Amino acid sequence: MTQPDWAPDDIDIDRPSASRIYDVWLGGSHNFEVDREIARKTELAWPDAVRYARANRAFLGRAVRFLAAQGIRQFLDIGSGIPTANNVHEVARRVDPQARVVYVDIDPVAVAHSRAILAGDDRTAVIQADLRQPRDILEQVRDGGLLDLTQPTALLLVALLHFVPDSDDPHGAIARLTGGMPSGSCLVVTQGAHGASDESDEEIRELYRRTPTPLTARDRAETERFFTGFELVDPGLVNLPDWRPDPIETVDDRYRGALVYAGVGRKR
Ligand SMILES: C[S@@+](CC[C@H](N)C(=O)[O-])C[C@H]1O[C@@H](n2cnc3c(N)ncnc32)[C@H](O)[C@@H]1O
Asked: Is there a domain that residue 9 lies in?
């Protein structure tokens, strides 16, 4: 197929990517046939994938609104994805127009599209980087000068950690990224749990093995371990629609068809 204008030259358009599959489910237009094929096949094994994506986005919005209302003005959003509705800076700025956001993603399409829509916005920045290289992220954030990580900051890892296996030490990355942040800084996580059956789990894992970021499901205890050094705020680690639900959200946003852990922690 031919490369559309919005696609960076150096990407492999024959290999699906997690960010573009998620874009398919959110109704976006920055995806290729390979992504749509994996999205369709995943939906056969997990018919609620679209509802999950919407519920995850709705949780992200609620968490950012909560943090902004608590006085957080800096957001480091890793695995930020392809921009869509209610991006982090838009939600935070409804509370305080001075809120600053650094978006980080490993995926070149997510980074290129984020840069395109945020060009000229001096309270956001976009970095191409890998959670597994936390030093590189910290260096790029410091060099950019937009966030002062000695001030309270929220680290957002939303629908990201299930793309990082334990062998790549996501716990170490979180410790390094948040180690220099002051008490009162926050960590936001959503993490896919094991699904309805071993068979459907394996089908989905098999599909994502075609992407550069295969899937790792985690149980409650494994997910809670990401919050080491943080205190979970009420209601703790819960299925994502149950985290401070908002009565004005649609039924889809409150989808309960799969267990996806969601939590917000405050650094002690
Ligand atoms: C499902 S999307 C989530 C987007 C957004 N956080 C949300 O919840 O709406 C996951 C994103 O994580 C990115 N990602 C996966 N592995 C990553 C890594 N090691 N470092 C940085 N980003 C990564 C993918 O490229 C993708 O854009």
From this structure: no
User: Rounded distance, CA 228 to CA 230, Å?
Assistant: 5
Number of domains present in the structure of the chain = 1
Is 13 a domain residue?
A: no
Q: How far is the CA of 218 from the centre of ligand 1 (A)?
A: 17
Give the CATH number of the domain where residue 37 resides: 3.40.50.150
Q: Does some domain include residue 123?
A: yes
Q: Is 21 helix (H, G, I), strand (E, B) or coil?
A: helix
Residue-by-residue pLDDT tens, the chain, 268 positions? 677 877 888 788 899 999 999 999 999 999 999 999 999 999 998 888 998 899 999 999 999 999 999 999 999 999 999 999 899 999 999 999 999 999 999 999 999 999 999 999 999 999 999 999 999 999 999 999 999 999 999 999 999 999 999 999 999 999 999 999 999 999 999 999 988 778 888 999 999 999 999 999 999 999 999 999 999 999 999 999 999 998 776 656 566 666 899 999 999 9
The pick from 19, 50, 56, 156 for probing ligand 1's pocket by mutation, whose C-beta has the most ligand atoms within 8 angstroms, reads 19
Taking the CA of residue 104 as centre, how many other CA atoms within 13 Å lie in the half-sphere pointing to its CB? Answer: 24
Say how far apart CA 83 and CA 91 lie, in whole Å.
Answer: 13
- Tell me, in angstroms, the distance from the centre of ligand 1 to residue 188's CA: 14
| In-domain check, residue 96 | yes
Q: Which domain holds residue 190?
A: 18-267
**Beta bridge pairs of residue 191:** 261
